[in-house]
Amino acid sequence: MKKMFRSIVPHIIPEFKLFLFRILPAGMVLSIFFIMSEAQYLIRDEIKLILYGILLGVAGIYLMRITAYLILRILTQIPYIIPDIYHDESKN
Q1: Residue 38 has what pLDDT?
Q2: What is the mean pLDDT of residues 32-56?
Q3: Residues whose CB is less than 8 angstroms from the CB of residue 52 and which lie 6 or more positions away in sequence, other chains included
Q4: Whole-structure pTM value
């Protein structure tokens, strides 16, 4: 358990910085599109409308990051997709 936490802790601060300086502002920008949609007629309170828009934007960005990470992991595990630069075929 301690090894797992030791491997996770160095990733927390860069992820938090990414959240504060990139993902949260992008979520705020995406909330503008949520305000312009028909959700404006369903949710009458402006604070809830903005909060839902920001939360949906942040959740969408994190969902895209997780999906991209999974696709990258799958593609790098398939042999011959990424050629080995150290492999010299002339020696075989």
Answers
A1: 82
A2: 86
A3: 31, 34, 39, 43
A4: 0.66
